[in-house]
Design a protein that fits this description.
This protein has 203 residues and is mostly helical. It has one domain. The chain has 9 helices and no strands. α2 crosses α8. Keywords: Membrane, Transmembrane, Transmembrane helix. InterPro entries: Cd-R_transporter. This is Cadmium transporter.
Length: 203
Amino acid sequence: MPGVTDLLAAVASAALVFAATNIDDIVVLTVLFVAARSAGRPRPWHIVAGQYLGIGALVTAAVVVAAGLLVVPDPWTGLLGLLPIGLGVRALLARSDSDEPPAVVGSLLGVAGVTIANGADNIAVYVPVFRSLDPATGLAYLVAFAVLVAVWCGTAALLGGHPRVVGLVGRVGHWLVPAIFVAIGVVILVSSGVLGHLADLAA
């Protein structure tokens, strides 16, 4: 049974792992909170609940893989990058004359889907971490992750309400918000290596 010092060290380590693998979520969450304030979609609680649902799904998958109960078809998870690309392109095609940024994601499940797509590569990091942990330390990681999701959402909500951020998105939100989602999808596709595998299959 780990002592208090060991648990504190585990929490600190969990915070580093979470921050390193989810720093890009701050951008996505901030954009979603700006859209929630201006367009009313997605609702703030959709963003928070969707983020918890998405991160929860990623962590659950990592724990299951770490236990040897499931094999993740790497790098095919990179195809999830098509989701944010599709959402971004759809928002670009549906742009209007309104000054409001487009609601790229409008529901809880949409937020969860983007979170999962954006964090699919996190599983590769989480699996060896959870495989090396005893149950008590693993629980400490899970609690730390749950708290940090709230911190991430709170930080993004503050940024999403900052006058400069709101003003920037208000001026160029019609192309900036969809472009961010398209860029995230492209990064997922490229960094996962799935494009190379598709090229090999086509050759």
